[in-house]
Amino acid sequence: MLQTNSPPDEQHLAPLSLEPGEKLLFTKRKHWYMLFLPLFKEGWIGIVVIGFFYIFFSLLSLPLLFFFIIALPLLLLMLGIMGKTVLNWYFHFYAITTQRIIEYCCRFPSSRSHKEIAFHQVLCTEIEVQTEGKINQFLNKGTLIITFNYQTSQEEMRLENIPSPRDVGSQLAQLFDMLRTDSSEDGVWFRAKVPKRYFFLGSQRGGMV
Amino acid sequence: MNTIIFAFLLFNSLLLVFAGIFIWLLREEAEKLAAILHIPLPTTISGFLRLSALASLFSLIGLLTLLFLHPLIF
């Protein structure tokens, strides 16, 4: 489930209790690059610590068995920490349904958070795509910022470091445009930061104008 | 010397127990959450955690053996 481009399946978000008639459109996790960097860092720290013990035991001319005795728990501890990082990445996702956006975040072992914005309570005013830097452009990774207006306040929903943010942004803009009931109002502004261009999704259905 | 080796082995056994329990709890929690959310936990992730937990168990057995037999070995 919840793989990028996976077919919609309402079963996957059953505990997040989809309303009758509500359909899961798509789900997004953070880009795999966001997993690669911490894993690389943790692996590197582990190798340095184990290497330090190897040099230490070599300098003291102790049997290699002592090195293995201390390296094994350290290695397993490192694997545990890396496993935790993978699970944190796997269980942090954004789900977009026809009625709301849900962000589910889990920090192992015990922290859980769940944020959702229901479309019928708000008016989406702007969808902004931020892709900063050549690496992010190359990896097609960026942050999608959706600005919602409540009656008295404004709130932002950030879909951070997701893959293909422009595609997701345009899909969302089309969704909001379809959901908009008052056709006299302006449409949804979809702004792509790199390159700096603005698209206006008009009040008629059927893509960008 | 024997006391130092004993303390060293004991400390590492405890570290191994901690690592094993941590990995095992992580796996349990992940499977529980996957069941609640109806998300299939990929076999690579669950297999990795299961193997790590097993590795820590076998390492602990080895280390405890060393702990009890160290006067004969060293």
Structural class of chain B: mainly alpha
Largest sheet of chain B: none
SSE class of chain A: alpha+beta
Overall radius of gyration of chain B: 17 Å
Principal-axes geometry of chain A comes out as elongated
Radius of gyration of chain A: 23 Å
| Outline type of chain B | elongated
Summarize the amount of helix of chain B as a percent range.
Answer: over 70%
Strand order of the largest sheet of chain A: 7-6-5-8-9
Give average pLDDT of chain A, whole number.
78
What gap, in angstroms, lies between the N and C termini of chain B?
9 Å
What is the count of β-strands of chain A? 9
User: Tell me about the biggest sheet of chain A?
Assistant: 5 strands, mixed
| Most residues in contact: chain pair | A-B, 29 and 32 residues
Cα(first) to Cα(last) distance of chain A is 34 Å
Q: So how many helices of chain A?
A: 4
Written description of the protein model:
The complex is a heterodimer of chains A (209) and B (74). Chain A has 209 residues and is α+β, with helices and mostly antiparallel strands. Helix content of chain A is 36%, strand content 31%. Chain A has helices at 33-59, 64-90, 134-139, 165-179; strands at residues 24-29, 93-97, 100-107, 111-118, 123-130, 141-149, 154-163, 188-192, 197-201. A five-stranded mixed sheet of chain A has the order 7-6-5-8-9. In chain A, helix 1 runs antiparallel to helix 2 (64-90). Chain A is elongated and about 75 Å long. Mean pLDDT of chain A is 78; it is low at 1-11 and 195-209. With 74 residues, chain B is an all-alpha fold. In chain B, 91% of the residues lie in helices and 0% in strands. Chain B is built from two helices and no strands. Chain B has helices spanning 2-37, 43-73. In chain B, helix 1 (2-37) runs antiparallel to helix 2 (43-73). Chain B is elongated. The termini of chain B are close together.
